[in-house]
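Dear H.,

Thanks for agreeing to be a second pair of eyes. The structure we're designing against is below in C-alpha cell form, covering all 344 positions.
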C-alpha cells in the first residue's frame, strides 16, 4: 500500500548541498508517485501549532451577521466581490463546508503589484472582518499567507531542479502571484437537511464503517496546495491504483498535493492527485493555501524531453475556467471573459 512520505524540507532553504539534492529527489518521487506528501521543518512552521491555527479559525466564531457581510455575489447579490470572500454552507451539496477565500491583498498593501489588473475579478480585494470584531486576526492571516508563499517558492525551485530545469525557471511567473488562503469549517451534517445520504455520492465504506462524504472528490487546479489540517482526520487521497488512503493530520506539518496546472505544465510528470474528505465524528477545520502564479503568467511548454507541446495559455483564463466549476463558485462563470481569445 502506498504511503505518504513526510519530508523535512529545511535543506531547501539553504545553499546547494547533498541534503538539498536528496530532498529534491524525495519531493520528485512523491509528486510523480502518489502525488501527495507531508512536509515539516521549514521557516514559519510555528504558525502551524494548534494555538496559531486557532487564531486564524477564530473567524468561524463570528456572529452570522458578521460573516454575511463577507459573502460573495453568487450568495448575496448586493455584494461586488465574486471571487474572494465568504462561501456559506450549501445543505444539498456533497461538499458540506463554509469558509473564506483570501487573496494576496491581505498580505501586501500595495495597490498595484506586478501583474495586477483592477478590472479582473481574479485580482479583486478580499472582504475582511473589522479589526474590532477580531483583534489581531488580520495580522495573523497576513503573516500566515506570507509564510506559505515562502514555502511555495522553495517548493517551486525544488520542482524545477527535480525536473532537471534551471531552478529559477518558474520565478517570474510567480512574482505577483494570486495565491489563495482558504479557511474551511465542515460541521457535522444536519441529518434533517432533506438530502438522502445513503447514495454513493454521499457515503463510502471506510474500514468497515459507513462514512458520509463532506468534501467531494476533486483535484486542485493550481500549482501546489499546502494544507494545514486542524488535528481531525478525514482527508483521503486516491492512489494511482485507485485505492483511497488516509492523509493523517500532524501538528507543525503541511499535507501537500500538486495541482492540475502543474500536471499540465510538466506533461504529467507531476500528478494532480484526486482527494476527498470523509466526515469525522466532530466538526473539522482545515487551512489550505493554493500556491499560484500571477494572473497574466503565460503557461507555455517546458523544455522537457518527450513532452507533448500545447498551445500556451494565460493562467487567469485557465483558473477561471477551472475554479468556476466548483460548487462554491457556481453561477459566476459569465462574469469574466478570457483575456486571450483561443486560436481557432
Ligand atoms: O479540508 C481538507 O482537508 C481538504 C480541502 C481541499 O481539498 C480543498 O479545499 O481543495
Ligand atoms: Fe483540494
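And this is the sequence the design step returned. I haven't edited it by hand at all.
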Amino acid at each position: 500500500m502506498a504511503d505518504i512520505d513526510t519530508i523535512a524540507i529545511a535543506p531547501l532553504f539553504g545553499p546547494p548541498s547533498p541534503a538539498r539534492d536528496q530532498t529534491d529527489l524525495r519531493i520528485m518521487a512523491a509528486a510523480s508517485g502518489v502525488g501527495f506528501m507531508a512536509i515539516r521543518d521549514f521557516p514559519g512552521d510555528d504558525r502551524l501549532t494548534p494555538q496559531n491555527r486557532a487564531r486564524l479559525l477564530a473567524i468561524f466564531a463570528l456572529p452570522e451577521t458578521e460573516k454575511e457581510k463577507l459573502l460573495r455575489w453568487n450568495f448575496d447579490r448586493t455584494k461586488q466581490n465574486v471571487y474572494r470572500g465568504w462561501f456559506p454552507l450549501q445543505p444539498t451539496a456533497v461538499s458540506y463546508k463554509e469558509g473564506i477565500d483570501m487573496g494576496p491583498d491581505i498580505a501586501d498593501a500595495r495597490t498595484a503589484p506586478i501583474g495586477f489588473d483592477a478590472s479582473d475579478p481574479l485580482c479583486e480585494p478580499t472582504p475582511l472582518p473589522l479589526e474590532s470584531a477580531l483583534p489581531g486576526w488580520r495580522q495573523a492571516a497576513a503573516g500566515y499567507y506570507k509564510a506559505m508563499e515562502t514555502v511555495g517558492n522553495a517548493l517551486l525551485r525544488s520542482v524545477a531542479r527535480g525536473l532537471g530545469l534551471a531552478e529559477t525557471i518558474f520565478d517570474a511567473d510567480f512574482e505577483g502571484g494570486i495565491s489563495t488562503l482558504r479557511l474551511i469549517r465542515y460541521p457535522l451534517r444536519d441529518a434533517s437537511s432533506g438530502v438522502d445520504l445513503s447514495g454513493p455520492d454521499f457515503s463510502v465504506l471506510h474500514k468497515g464503517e459507513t462514512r458520509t462524504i463532506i468534501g467531494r472528490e476533486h483535484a486542485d487546479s493550481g500549482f501546489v496546495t499546502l494544507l494545514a489540517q486542524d488535528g481531525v482526520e478525514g482527508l483521503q487521497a486516491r492512489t494511482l491504483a485507485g485505492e483511497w488512503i488516509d492523509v493523517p493530520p500532524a501538528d507543525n506539518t503541511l499535507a501537500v498535493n500538486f495541482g492540475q496546472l502543474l500536471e499540465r505544465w510538466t506533461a504529467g510528470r507531476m500528478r494532480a492527485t484526486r482527494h476527498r474528505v470523509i466526515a469525522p465524528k466532530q466538526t473539522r477545520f482545515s487551512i489550505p493555501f493554493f500556491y499560484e502564479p500571477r494572473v497574466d503568467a503565460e503557461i507555455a511548454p517546458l523544455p522537457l524531453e518527450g513532452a507533448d507541446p500545447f498551445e500556451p495559455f494565460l493562467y487567469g483564463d485557465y483558473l477561471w475556467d477551472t475554479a468556476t466549476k466548483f460548487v462554491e463558485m457556481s453561477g459566476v462563470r459569465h462574469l469574466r471573459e478570457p483575456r486571450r481569445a483561443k486560436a481557432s
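Two observations from my side: The pocket of fe (ii) ion (ligand 2) is lined by residues 218, 220, 225, 275 (CB under 6 Å). Helices lie at 18-32, 50-57, 64-68, 137-162, 171-174, 260-265, 315-323.

Warmly,
E.
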